[in-house]
Amino acid sequence: PASHPSTPLQLALRRSLIMLSTIATPFALNAGMPMANAGRVVSPVMKANIVLADKEAEARIMAIVDAEPGKTKSAAMCSRMAAENLDRIRDEELGCAAMGPPFTMPTGLGWDTSTEPKNQEDMVALAKRLNPVVGFWDPLGIVDDASPETIGWFRHAEIKHGRVAMAGFVGYCVHSNGITFPWNIQAPLPWTSITSDLPAIAFKDITAAGSPGDMWDALPTAAKLQIILVVGFLEMHGENSLALEADGQKHYVRGGKPGYYP
Questions:
Q1: pTM, rounded to two decimals
Q2: DSSP state, residue 62
Q3: Measured between alpha carbons, how far is 203 from 223 in angstroms, rounded to an integer?
Q4: Helix, strand or coil for residue 75?
């Protein structure tokens, strides 16, 4: 065992790995895909290391990760990176303002070596290069005398919202045409008393509810919570400056590339 007690996040990640390994077999068989060693749960041995510009943070993270067994190194790294990132957020000099990045006082951190647009002139040049026909169009004056941090925040928000809108449009079309997976979204699980009495609900049952809005209402509460929590985790990880740094990038309000996801 490790020389320190496991954190709640590590325990949750371990349970999640066990659950995923147990449910992977029926999903594969339902989809008509034979799975090698389907009756045996394989415990992967994880390897984890990280290289950061902030060597003090790297040392703190690796001190915990190195003390973990091979099976839980990745989970330990995830936990420690999240903790280090929270420390950065709470830092008075590095953290963001309480009211959000658009209102963060400009610090210039990271922008001295950044090649990303820093002012209106840069944004005009970028707009004309990307779309010479439309060119620069900013009727709200968002980038008028805006700081580099504000420009980076708005650019990232626009890219993210555009991706979500495109994915949502495709999803709406797919659901409206009754395209579904052939298996159940929920079924009784005999391992616990809480899950043994769950009703069997197939994806086609959700589609039968009507429009995509009605389908959301028809989803089990557990399914809605899973969607919200997964999206929240992905959002948190995408804002993690340490995860970005491990990929050789920087946060978009510190001169990094807007829209980049680690």
A1: 0.68
A2: H
A3: 12
A4: helix
